[in-house]
Amino acid sequence: MADYYRGNKEYFPGVGKIKFEGKDSDNDLAFKFYDENKIISGKTMKKHLRFATAYWHSFCADGSDPFGNGTIRHPWKNTEEKADAAFEFFSKLGTPYYCFHDIDASEDADSIAEYEDNYKKTTEILLERQNATGVKLLWNTANVFSHPRYMNGASTNPDFRILARAATQVKASLDANVILGGENYVFWGGREGYSTLLNTNMKKELNHMAQFLALARDYGRKIGFKGSFLIEPKPMEPTKHQYDVDSATVIGFLKEHGLDKDFKLNIEANHATLAGHSFDHELRVCADAGMLGSVDANRGDPQNGWDTDQFPTDVYDALKAMMVILDVGGLGTGGLNFDAKVRRNSTDSDDLFYAHIGGMDTFACALEIADKIIRDGKLKTRMDKRYESFTFGKGLEFEQGKMTLENLRDYALHDSPISQVSGKQELIENIMNQYMFA
Ligand code: XLS
Ligand code: CA
Ligand code: CA
């Protein structure tokens, strides 16, 4: 029996199960670093990394861009064939999870009844294939940004009728999620924002968004959704200004509206770049707030100001991300989703495999190195030392809230002359390289 799923037809015939062969292998269709069974600090790589494949980029997108038609022709013709191709791919590659938008997997329709009916049938199709392969749903979401009706937003639309229409998609997506055993549910507000404040009541729109999210939460909990609701920040594109700019903005919004108990964040590396932050900055902000939910591991391009959704290949960047993830005890019910697409001119079907293999190997390397750095504890010792003055005496009293501003002034007045303390950045960066290339 083949160790991968095949429906009525095989969609990736030249490719078998992708196996781990180690760094000296010259088999392009093998993992060089990702060994799913390898134990890293008591847990397999598979359990640490919780990789997911994205339905939309891999099985829907065709390479088209604003200047040209699609270059990639998919052989699947309907919902069932697409699901067969997707699960064949997941099971050959070995990503234990997948993610989808309602209308990636299911056919859209103007009639709500037809849309819901399609989605119910699609859910059965997906469930069958989940059961056949053991591949699980990391998250799904509703695409309430592509259809022209959402041109002014979904939950922040100035027209209540559109907001209600968006609710039908979110409700149906939560229904599907619960049937499929989804571990999270995502909101990405691509058109929740504005293009000019001259026609926008921002306060009203933000209150509507919060109210809408609260209703989605209440409905989800009512039907038995136990996972995390996730908000995915992005500062712009397609909207000029998106309300969920970055982690700090989203966390403030969730707290202001009392949503921080049920909602966490889904951090995308590419969106961090667009927000003018680093990937590890965005992760760290969430981690420190106890709100790191999941990760879209695709990167942007430092020279482009748009969302290139490329597969991650930069081990240094992935390493800094994994250091944050391991530091907070792992991804929990989240995962590393490749919300990434092959380039427009990568037109062979095996390119999709190379892309994912590269991304998975990149994070496998990052995991091993991050684990070593954390276990060695050298960087942690250095960091702790930097803050040593808060561990005793007046520094400790300050941290414990026992000092007033006058106390601080009096302490400073009687303190001995202050000597400079170096941050040692260059040395630390050298140590990082030593770990990477040891
Ligand atoms: C777009 C977003 C989107 C979300 C899911 O930039 O990354 O794909 O992840 O709607
Ligand atoms: Ca993106
Ligand atoms: Ca994303």
Would you give an account of this structure?
The chain has 438 residues and is an alpha/beta fold. The chain folds into 2 domains: 19-376, Divalent-metal-dependent TIM barrel enzymes (TIM Barrel), CATH 3.20.20; 383-437, no CATH class. Helix content is 46%, strand content 11%. The chain has 16 helices and 14 strands. It has helices at residues 45-49, 55-60, 79-93, 102-105, 112-133, 160-180, 202-222, 247-256, 269-274, 279-288, 315-327, 349-376, 378-386, 393-399, 405-414, 425-437; strands spanning 19-20, 30-31, 39-40, 43-44, 51-54, 97-101, 136-141, 184-187, 193-194, 228-231, 241-242, 263-268, 292-296, 336-338. Strands 5-6-7-8-10-12-13-14 form an 8-stranded parallel barrel, surrounded by 4 helices. Strand 3 and strand 4 form a beta hairpin. Helix 10 (279-288) packs parallel to helix 11 (315-327). The longest helix is centred in the C-terminal third of the chain and has 28 residues, at 349-376. It is globular and about 80 Å long. The two termini are 41 Å apart. Bound molecules: D-xylose and calcium ion (2 copies). Residues 268, 270-271, 307, 309, 339 line the site of one calcium ion.
